[in-house]
Every structure is written in C-alpha cells, then in structure tokens.
Amino acid sequence: MTPIELKARTKAFALRVIKLVDALPATTVGRALGKQLVRSGTSVAANNRTACRARGRPEFIAKIGVVEEEADETMLWLELLGESGTMPADQVAALLREANELTAIMAASRKTAKD
C-alpha cells in the first residue's frame, strides 16, 4: 500500500469514526466513550499524515508508533461500545476490523523501518 493510499484509508477511517460517534446515544456512557473514540480515531489519520512528513527514519518510527497506539486504543473504545451494549456489536464490527487492520499495518511498518 502506498503512502497516498494509506493516507486516504486512515482519513476514511476517521470519517467513519465521526459518523459512528454522531449516532451514539446521548447518555453519560455514550458521550464519554464517544469523546474518547473520536479523539483516538481521528488521531490515526492525523498522526499518519505527520509520519509521512517525517524528517528521517527515527522520527518516522516514533510517529508510526503513535499511529499504531492510537489505532489500538480506538479498538478498545469500539470493543467497549459493543460489549457494554451502548451500540449493537454488529454496528461496530466493520470499524473494529478496520482498526485492527490499521494497527497491524502500522506495526508492520514500524518493524520494517526499524530493521
């Protein structure tokens, strides 16, 4: 996957997260989890763009590590939404799969850059 394709994919992921958060119930739990989810989910795209502009390998490794962490954190919030019953699990499943794939891609990129 090229950097341009990955930028588009992480941006699309962020937009899907935003739409999901907008659909959450206006409960205390819905608002709390939604706030965390929108922060981490949009951070995946923002930090990926930053990683693409890294000034060297050490900076790239650090930034792509942040993207990996944010994608993994997003997985947690999505899991909590489904498992808590705040949102039906089937409604978060596709986004959860994408977060998992992005986490794996970033982990592989970081490992490759380190080697």
Explain what the structure shows:
This protein is mainly α and 115 residues long. The protein has one domain (3-114): 23S rRNA-intervening sequence (de novo design (two linked rop proteins)). It is built from four helices and no strands. The chain is elongated and about 45 Å long. The two termini are 19 Å apart.
Question: What would a concise description of this structure say?
Answer:
The protein has 115 residues and is mostly helical.
- Which residues sit in consecutive blocks of at least 5 with pLDDT less than 50? none
Radius of gyration: 14 Å
CATH superfamily: 23S rRNA-intervening sequence
Query: Mind summarizing the main beta sheet?
Result: none
| Residue share in helix | over 70%
CATH fold category name: de novo design (two linked rop proteins)
- The ordered H/E elements are HHHH
CATH class: Mainly Alpha
Query: In total, how many domains does the architecture comprise?
Result: 1
Structural class: mainly alpha
Mean pLDDT: 96
Q: Would you identify the CATH architecture?
A: Up-down Bundle
Keywords:
4 helices, de novo design (two linked rop proteins), 85% helix, mainly alpha
Q: What's the SSE blueprint?
A:
Elements: H1 3-22, H2 28-52, H3 57-83, H4 89-114
Helix pairs in contact: 1-2, 1-4, 2-3, 3-4
